[in-house]
Amino acid sequence: MPVEFRPIRPEELAQFADVNLTAFGERGDPWFERWFRERVKPQDTIAAFADGQMVGSSLAFPLELALPGTVVTASGVTAVGVLPTHRRRGLLREMMTRQILGARDQGLAMAILWASEGAIYSRFGFGPAARSWRVALEHPRAQLVPLPTSGSLRMVGRDEALQRFPPLHDHLLQSRPGTIGRDQRAWEMSLSEDDPHLPRDEARLFLVVHQGDGGDDGYLVYRIRQAWSALGARSTLLISEMVANAPGAAADMWRYCLEVDLVHRVEASGRGLRPLDDPILWLAKDPQALELGLGTTIWARIIDVPEVLSARRYQRDGDLTIEVSDPVEHLAEGRFRLHVANGVGECRKTESSPDLILGVSELSSACLGQRCLTGLAAAGRLSMGDPAAARRADDLLAWDPPPWCFEDF
Ligand SMILES: CC(C)(COP(=O)(O)OP(=O)(O)OC[C@H]1O[C@@H](n2cnc3c(N)ncnc32)[C@H](O)[C@@H]1OP(=O)(O)O)[C@@H](O)C(=O)NCCC(=O)NCCS
Asked: Cα–Cα distance between 11 and 19 in angstroms, integer?
């Protein structure tokens, strides 16, 4: 059966949304329709048609992504789905290949995505590039180290939050690799209480700004899941977003979360996932009182190696020669020499022998500054001339603070 792949026409938008919902086994709703109307431009889509029926969907749109020390435009791949009747016959492979080649043709050097199932995407050159913690703590076991506060907290309404939170997020974009830029529409969606995926009685968002000596330096968005038992209130406070741009701000907000009356448990998951360097790890008197789970947020895929390695910044100087293989049309393949001086990298093709031989998926895992090459080498996923090369490469490519992304697009 011949399958046609092409961008959708404007009048096919509702069908595109429906194919995606069906692939995920979900029901349509006004919130999702609004997301599609605002985000989906027909020219950013590739859909699959079998016998004239749309059976597969994919979308890749340009977004702002923070790399170490700089912000670039990357291709954000999402809305990928194939109807259950047409799976495992190569439709995703064809749509994904076209989306990656399309991003290259637009001059984009990277693509990123959130994976529904992590086992799918390394075959397309993506690697897990930002990890984070799911955190939960409960009274009375979780006690925080007593410390003076570093500022004050104030509850704000949605309109005020829409004024005060974006500059704090912009600061994060400039300082934390993995952050995705937000426009006004994205802000309105993130602070909307209409998300149908949430039960109605826990959809209310509570908005708090943290002010330090220099003014606003953090914000917190949370919800409450109410629960009562014979012993009294046992509600859960669900952190939706916590951004802290100054030392002490995150500590104050964690303390606040634990001290909200009637709250028995605090959870940070979903968009509330915490960065690997979150101070909660050092704030809990008993670290074993923290329930921690390691989550992967974004997967990255380098499309143009010299472009990405020359665009991002470095915290050490040095040289590295790598040989990269690429399972998608040998797109990013080649041997490259990276020379870093004063934190600025210059990456070019070379004929020199490589320090490291690796796949584009593994290199992509390292490109946002995650220290992972030593671990990948230990896992047997890199070939090295010199066994110390992975550590040297990590020293050169790793960035502090580590990458973090909470924007599920
Ligand atoms: C995931 C999904 C898009 C795959 O579509 P598909 O057309 O069946 O995929 P393909 O036939 O093109 O498979 C391409 C490759 O990916 C592999 N693959 C596909 N789905 C996979 C899965 N869920 N887990 C692991 N590997 C998977 C295939 O085995 C194939 O591997 P190979 O070519 O190396 O042998 C489809 O199953 C789907 O819509 N799932 C539900 C929605 C979803 O999870 N979407 C992804 C959003 S991030």
From this structure: 14
